[in-house]
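Handout, page 2. Input:
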Amino acid sequence: MTDKFSSSLTASGEMIANPRWFVIPIRGSQMQRINTSYFYRLATKLIPLRHVTQGKTVLDVWGELYGAQQELWVFLSNQVMPPHTSEGPGRQLYELIQKLAAGLFVDPPTEPPTFHEIELSEVNELSEALQKFEISLQSDFAVRDTFICSPKAAYSTTILAESGETLISQAAHALVGSMKKDLHDAARCMAFELPTAAAFHFFRAVEAMVVAYGEFLRQKPFTQSEKKKGLGGIANLLKEKSLGVDVRITNAVEQLALLHRNPTMHPEWHISTTEILVTVGMVVSVIETVALDWNRRTETPQKSLSEFLPEDSRLESSAGELDLSAVPKPTPLESEGAKHEKKPKKRVAKPRKEPSPKA
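Output:
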C-alpha cells in the first residue's frame, strides 16, 4: 500500500499494525507462529456494525465504529498475512467507518451541539460494504498457504521448532558445545516431517560427543583415518582395555550405528516418522550416558560408572538374595514326624489281555 490511506496507517499506527499477539516469531528462523484467535477477534469487532440502525446517533454507536476501525487498521496493515483480494473491500469499509465516525455532530454546528443521527442511506451503505468485505475475506483466505504440524508423540511442536537443543542436558552441552546447532536443526526437521534430515543431524551430534569423549580418554585426537571409520569404528577404538570404557557404552554406540546411523547414509534408504522417534531416544541415551561417564571420570574418578548407572547383573543378584534367617526352622518332633510319614502308594495299572482271535 503506497497511497494516502496506507501512509496514514504507517504514520500513526505502527504499534497497532504489528501487535505481538498477532504473530509469535519462531526463535532462530524467519518462520512465525500465527495466533489463529486473531480472526475471531476481527469478527467480534466487525459483527456489531450490523446493529447500526437508522435513527441512532453517531454517539450511540461510537464504540462499535471505533472498535471496527481500529481492528481493520490492524488487518489491512499487517505484513505477515496481508490481504490480497480482500484489500480493496476492506479499505472501502474502513474509509466509510472513518467518515461516519468523523460526523459526530450535525453540520452546520448548532448551539448547543447536536449529535448527528444516522440516516437510512448511511446504514445501507455500511451494510453493503460490510457484506462485500466478508465475502472477499472468505474467498481470499480460503486459498492461503496455511499448514498445521502434526504432533510428534509427547514432544511439543513449539519446543522442537524453537529450542530442540533442550533435548539433552546442560551438563552434556557444557562438554561438547558444537552439538547445539545440530540438535537444534534435528528437532526442527523432526517437527516439520523431515525424519531423514533429522536423523542426519542427530547422528552428527552423537558423533561429536563420542569423538570428543574418546579424545578425552586417549589424551590425543583421533587421526583422519580413524574418524573415517564412522561411529561404529570409534566404538571399536573405545574397546581398548587401557581406556576402561564400560561395555554398555560401546554396545549402545554400536547398536545406534548398526540399527540407524549406517543405513541412513545410503541414499536409497529413508527414515520414517515412527523410526525417528526411536532414533531420538537412543541418541539422547548415548549422549547422556557418555556425558555421565565423562563427568564421573573428571569429578569422582574413585567411583565406578556402576555406582551411577547400576548393572543388570548386580540388580538381579541383589534382588535374588533371600533373608533365610527369618524363616523358622522345623522342631525335632516335626523333623522326626516327617521321616515316618507314610507316602501314598502308587497304583500301577496292569496290562489288559487281548482276547485271542477265533479260528
